[in-house]
Amino acid sequence: MAAELAALRAEVATLRSEAERYRAGFELSASGQVISSLDGRIKVVNDRACAILGHSREALVGRHFSEITHPADLKLNTALLEQFTLGMVPTLRMDKRYLRADGSAVWCAIHVAMVRDAEGGPQAMLAVINDISERKRIESELRERNDVLAGLSAHMPSALFIYKVDERGHRSLPYLSESISTMFELDLPSLRADATMLALRIHPDDVPRLAAEAEDSYRHLTPIQQEYRVLLPSRGLRWVAARSMPHRMPDGSTQWYGVMTDITDQKLYQEAVVNAQAAERANQAKSDFLSRMSHELRTPLNAVIGFAQLLRMDTQRPMDEEQHRRVALIEEAGAHLQAVINDVLDLSRIEVGSLPLSIESLNLRALGDEALNMVEEMAHSAAIKLLPPEIAGDLYVRGDRVRLRQVLVNLLSNAIKYNRQGGTVQLKARAQGSEVLMEVSDNGIGMSEEQQQHLFEPFNRLGVESSGVDGTGIGLVIVRKLLELMKGEVRVTSHKGRGTTVCVTLASAMPATPALPTARGSALPADEPTPLPTRTATLLYAEDNDVNVMLVEQILALRPEWNLLVAVSGTQALALARETCPDLLLLDMHLGDMTGFDVVTELDKDDRLSQIPRVALSADAMPDQIHAAKARGFEAYLTKPLDVSNLLDCLDEHMRRLTASAQG
């Protein structure tokens, strides 16, 4: 009996020892521990739990957990606890908030286990509680930061990303802006899980370069700046720019923090700028070539046409009929070549946009009369009858006077050239709504439908090259382009063997306000030329071409009142000008050592020489050159091949001015 009692006492002592160890462990636990009844009422709580929950032991024991649970978490907490007590889940884990005695909330991670009796029945609940307020605060800050970052990136034209390569080489994208989904046309969750999907969108030709740059950045932790192409299912080829900075992480992985931008529009703009610059350079080269070509062709033409005109005008040594015929052929050939040059220059200036227009209200009847007068001799020589124009009323159109007259002359000339002997040509015009329709019709050879299909092709003469009719094949091309510049259009109707009608349409206009007459305009009737004076004057001619000098010398023989001085360079022209102070300077614009502009720049430095009247005589007939000369004070710009009568008129006008100035 004594032995049994001793054994019992030993067992009780062991149990007490174990209970003490359990109590000590319970009380000294780093986590809060709470034992509650099955209905959720607190029975035992350790000191750590009291500290976490913010209540004394006396205040907690006997209270129901719902009394200290944050109201926002109570409903979910109750539902989870019910599932646990019914045995639907073996353990209960959750994050929840408790309310402390001071009214503040504390976030806790709760792990609840069931305490069972010897038969395995539920007896109580043991909850282990840990304060996770700091973790929740950090999570909240991270969420807020992510929300801000997501909000910013959603409204940015660029996309933010984090690209990660771990120690095993696995690649992932821990962070991606929403806009990357659109930029690469990929599902964002799938892309976050598998970064290799991004590479599948990259143009195959760019992949090796990008891989090499990424490998170099990985090894040396250098930043990356890349531009590459992507191929998208719906939008096709796009351009992307990416910049990123690598960082080696504590776990051995490497992360690149970067930004991506769709730069397709910038690339297209850059390409357009490059193309525009190339086109501008090509146009400039074309203009330079045409300027040189014009100069090189006009210079010999100047001698051909100029001397032919002098032969025809020479009354002291008259030519016989055969010589007249030969000189006329020379002039005709020269005029044809000059017309070809002018047409080519006009077409090129239109194409490069360097043909200036002065749009105004034009009286169509007056302009039509001018055009008919200009082709009257041509019609007479070809035995073509110009019928009286039929212009319905007093019509006005919007256009450039010189260029619209050129259009009408071209159409009338074609109607005369491609007519039959004894044929007729007529100009008609009528109003049609807000437009004016002008028609040039003939009853000549006409054109087939096949010829009309090629009518506006440059240099295509539609098979009449061997007909003996002069032409360049670009006249109608120029007509259409000039009309397009004046917001008009041209249509052609033709029947083989029955004639052609060309219809021109331009916007109608109101009559222009007439200018008031001035005293200067009424001083002398235009048809009463002022008698030429008998005094003499000095003409300084700067020219480095001997043939051109010879031509002007012979022209001056027709005006003996002019004394001619010749300078063969710009330097010599300046020296002679300073020495003689001539009455008129006739200046070639391309001398061997200086340009005409260089010469006048030096003359303008001297008040006395700056007053010398200047007339340009040049084979450079480009409009920008002519406008520049007028802006620099040139009184006239005569082009080569020189029209002898134009130079004589210029000399006579200056002589009249000199005489009037001397008499005044």
Q: What would you say this structure looks like, in words?
A:
With 664 residues, the protein is an alpha/beta fold. The chain has 20 helices and 23 strands. Strand 15 and strand 16 (435-442) form a beta hairpin. Helix 11 (321-351) packs across helix 15 (475-485). The longest helix has 50 residues, at 264-313. Mean pLDDT is 82; it is low at 515-530.
Number of helices: 20
Q: What form results from the Cα inertia axes?
A: elongated
Name the beta content range. 15-25%
Distance between the termini: 168 Å
The overall average pLDDT, rounded, is: 82
Kindly state the percentage of residues in helix.
40-55%
Q: How would a textbook summarize the main sheet? A: 6 strands, mixed
Count of strand segments: 23
Identify low-pLDDT runs.
Answer: 515-530
Q: What structural class do you assign from the helix and strand content?
A: alpha/beta
Radius of gyration: 50 Å
What order do the helices and strands come in, and which of them pair?
Elements: H1 2-28, E1 32-36, E2 42-45, H2 47-53, H3 57-60, H4 71-85, E3 92-99, E4 105-116, E5 122-131, H5 133-154, E6 158-165, E7 171-176, H6 179-184, H7 188-193, H8 196-199, H9 207-220, E8 224-232, E9 236-248, E10 254-262, H10 264-313, H11 321-351, E11 359-363, H12 364-381, E12 385-386, E13 390-391, E14 396-400, H13 401-417, E15 424-432, E16 435-442, H14 449-453, H15 475-485, E17 489-495, E18 499-507, E19 537-542, H16 546-556, E20 562-567, H17 570-580, E21 584-587, H18 596-603, E22 614-618, H19 623-631, E23 636-639, H20 644-663
